[in-house]
Write a structure and sequence with these properties.
single chain, 143 residues, alpha+beta, seven-stranded mixed β-sheet, 3 helices, globular
Length: 143
């Protein structure tokens, strides 16, 4: 795993996030971050989380009798492989609704457990397979 802040390598224990107020309670100067991980490893780690959520959504649809598209224009629930191939806006619509914190927790501790924490993640803007790696991008702010 590689963690970059403004293009510079950073230690993962120097970064954290808070679920409460994520994306809205931060002021100050924001810098871009990127978490770069093995794509196959991400799929192995994320698949149980993804599959459990999709099963829950399908159960909800069966109970209500209504299909609630996971992204605009969806006609069904994508497999994890299909999900990762969706156009970025559709993929991020699903992630924003269901998975932001699940994905962050795969790689980042929450809440800050260490005095080494220097950065707080305040957004997740892109989750994308790029060849053999998965890249997560957004913004951090200095803690």
């Amino acid at each position: 795993m590689q963690f970059l802040i403004a293009g510079t390598n950073s230690r993962v224990n120097a970064v954290s996030f808070f679920e409460k107020g994520f994306g809205s309670r931060f002021g100050g100067v924001k810098l871009p971050y990127a978490i770069v991980v093995d794509g196959a490893g991400f799929i192995r780690s994320f698949r149980p989380i993804y599959d459990e959520c999709i099963r829950g959504l399908i159960r909800d649809d069966e109970i209500t009798g209504d299909f609630h598209p996971p992204y605009s224009g969806a006609i069904g629930y994508p497999s994890i492989e299909e999900f990762l191939q969706l156009p970025t806006p559709c993929r991020m619509e699903i992630i924003d609704a269901y998975f932001v914190f699940d994905i962050l927790r795969l790689y980042v501790h929450e809440p800050p457990l260490s005095p080494d924490v220097q950065w707080l993640i305040c957004s997740m803007d892109v989750v994308e397979l790029r060849g053999a790696v998965l890249v997560i991008e957004g913004e951090v702010i200095q803690d």
